[in-house]
TrEMBL record:
InterPro entries xrefs: FAD-bd, FAD_aromatic-hydroxylase
Domain of life: Bacteria
Entry keyword set: Monooxygenase, Oxidoreductase
Source lineage: Bacteria, Bacillati, Actinomycetota, Actinomycetes, Streptosporangiales
FAD-binding domain mapped to chain residues: 2-313
A single GO molecular function term of this UniProt record: monooxygenase activity
PANTHER family (UniProt xref): MONOOXYGENASE, OXIDOREDUCTASE-RELATED
Chain coiled-coil ranges: none
Annotated source species: Nonomuraea guangzhouensis
Protein name, as recorded: FAD-dependent monooxygenase
Length: 391
């Protein structure tokens, strides 16, 4: 096994390309977008994923591009500050955990691989035969020993090899939307949050960013919409957030002109197997834990490391699953629990949460309460012992 095709130039795809090349494979990456995707939201790197980053020689670069978030402030409908908390606690970070913009991390990974990995942009896989012949929308057919699907929760590779997405998606009952907006609040490394029953709006601006990101989450039954119709999705967001006070009306107006709009259900991917024939999946395509887990990026980084290591050491796809399955299970459990604290069902629940945030610095059991917030994530983030595949 030498020539390996990776579908997707996101975090999982670029990280897999790096480790495959380190182990002597010849990876090729195909990406539907016309260029590397920039921007995106901030992501966390925790636990053993930091070890992976360090083994790639990127830890200092990641630290240098830290979001440097300072504080999270909760506002009521009239714009009054009602509670504040440390940004790391708000994000469930502890110790040496790092936070970086997704586009910055992807750029670092791409720069590590661009000189010795072939990237094919503006193209997509249309078919995978039993002998490894892959057909594309634009390029001529080519034969590969293995195809790695690293193309996200709506993976085209997974659909071709395993069947329709509906068989593997577990909807958690919420939706999420995020895009760039003007920083009209003048935020400086601050999260500004407003909660209404069943709906949450969060605006933040990171270090060295003159704009802001507006993030919306809300509870909802499954919505029927076209995944490529952004105008329709923006209208669904406007309907979901209608009547919410604070800065939400102005934010929704800014959303209409955004060029990096993201909209999706808060869902997970659950599969009995991550490999079939000449196809293996990594990252969100195989085991999306949902944005609510806070562990999607770490799962992608660790999954890429383990997959490449097992292929190189002879464990193959079976070894990859054996090594990673318990780690994935532990991290997927975070999503359903976390989202309930991100979108609260009632005004009473909102009042109680903000009251506890205000009281937290003064409570005698402060450390135990903090562990209830950050502890489960920290334990899940270290729920695997990484093999030293390169030794």
């Amino acid at each position: 096994m030498t020539n390996i095709l990776i579908s997707g130039a996101s975090i999982a795809g670029t990280a897999t390309a790096y480790w495959l090349r380190r182990h002597g494979f010849t990876p090729t990456v195909v990406e539907r977008a016309p260029a590397l995707r920039e921007g995106g939201y901030k992501v966390d790197i925790r636990g053993v994923a930091l070890d992976v980053i360090e083994r790639m020689g990127l830890l200092d670069a990641v630290r240098a591009r830290s979001t440097d978030m300072r504080i999270a402030t909760h506002y009521d409908g009239k714009g009054r500050r009602i509670a504040e908390m440390d940004a790391d606690l708000f994000g469930g970070r502890a110790g040496t955990d790092a936070e970086i913009m997704r586009g910055d991390l992807n750029e670092l990974l791409y720069d590590l691989t661009r000189d010795d990995v072939e990237y094919i942009f503006d193209d997509s896989i249309t078919g995978i035969s039993e002998d490894g012949t892959v057909t594309f929308e634009r390029s001529a057919p080519r034969r590969f020993d293995l195809v790695v699907g690293a193309d996200g929760v709506h993976s085209n590779t997974r659909r071709l090899a395993f069947g329709e997405e509906s068989a593997f998606v577990r909807d958690l009952g919420y939706y999420i939307s995020i895009c760039t907006v003007p920083n009209r609040l003048g935020l400086d490394r601050e999260e500004a949050v407003h909660a209404a029953p069943g709906r949450t709006a969060n605006v933040y601006s990171t270090r060295q960013d003159t704009n802001a990101k507006a993030l919306f989450m809300w509870s909802s039954q499954p919505l029927a919409y076209d995944h490529r119709d952004l105008a329709q999705q923006k209208e669904l967001l406007a309907q979901a957030m209608a009547g919410v006070e604070w800065e939400v009306p102005e934010l929704l107006e800014a959303v209409r002109g955004s060029s990096d709009f993201y909209f999706d259900s808060v869902s997970q991917i659950h599969m009995d197997r991550w490999s079939k024939g000449r196809v293996v999946l990594v990252g969100d395509a195989a085991y999306c834990a949902s944005p609510a887990s806070g562990q999607g990026t770490s799962l992608a980084l660790v999954g890429a490391y383990v997959l490449a290591g097992e292929l190189a050491s002879g464990g193959g796809a079976d070894g990859y699953e054996r090594e990673l399955r318990a780690f994935v299970d532990a991290n997927q459990k975070l999503g359903p629990a976390n989202v309930k604290g991100m979108v609260l069902p009632s005004r009473a629940a909102i009042w109680f949460q903000t009251r506890m945030i205000r009281l937290l610095p003064h409570l005698p059991g402060r450390d135990k309460m903090i562990d209830r917030v950050a502890g489960p994530m920290a334990r899940a983030a270290t729920a695997i012992t990484l093999k030293a595949y390169m030794e």
